[in-house]
């Protein structure tokens, strides 16, 4: 606070009294000036969005119903959800309504505690996400996703089920890979930008001294290039942060539609590309068909600012509920009630609306 302004406007800066804090019981004088830092508004916003412990977070009825509609499978050990885009998975400042916090509070069902995350998806990525309902199921599945050798046990059936584990993503990329299918082996590393304020994942070079992580992705092109884009199926064999996005953008040279972090330069050129392609059946110039009544301005490939077109469509993993007794070494044999259950579970999640629109626009040319 500054004292009331003097009538002597020629007063120099050096003779002014320094700023001081206002005491709670102090009476303000007319004409006094109060200096409020800009961060005061930011502090209010960040306080509102602080992560709330699941024990104190009570979603309302609509939020609970919304989350339960996302559930595509539930048993005694796991819950599988179809995550929508733009919903953060892990709570962190300034995130409040993250999926892990809401699920822990709203999807406990008949359990004392809510489920816990097994693996993550990026905020803008949609598709299958896995939660564990028990501590032991969470730990076994996290080992499975980090290193399959850590998850193996003395049970041959369980080990075979672990070998069957995979994820498949569908992505719409700008351009088309040179090869129709292949394996990307491109290690990743993290670099610091903006004087260490931000972190970015990039392809690791052999001459780099930075620590690197092995990253392997299988890919397969699903169809011809239409309107400058093509659909690609991705199967990660390792699970690194932003692995699929970087492999598409930097290793294949075909960034995912809507990925402005790793494909901004290509996006800027792609928007200026002439929309002339050749129809595979007639060999004539092709023009995009727009079905009547279809709203293409909902993040699809034809919208001004497309959303990220990356979707975890399929997940295959061991039936952890069946094997928990064996993994915990409480029994060497499976209980009779579980022996008829399948060793492996398979889940398929439908695409979000913006990807469905893009798919429908191009589906007649997919093979």
From TrEMBL:
Disordered: region residues: 1-22
Pfam families assigned: PseudoU_synth_2
Pseudouridine synthase RsuA/RluA-like domain location: 78-249
Stored CDD domains: PseudoU_synth_RluA_like (cd02869)
InterPro entries linked: PsdUridine_synth_cat_dom_sf, PsdUridine_synth_RluA-like_CS, PsdUridine_synth_RsuA/RluA, RluA_PseudoU_synthase
SUPFAM superfamilies on file: Pseudouridine synthase
Domain of life: Eukaryota
The protein's name in its UniProt record: Pseudouridine synthase RsuA/RluA-like domain-containing protein
Biased segments, Polar residues type: 1-12
Segments passing through the bilayer: none
PROSITE patterns listed in its UniProt record: PSI_RLU
Reactions catalysed, as given in the entry: a uridine in RNA = a pseudouridine in RNA
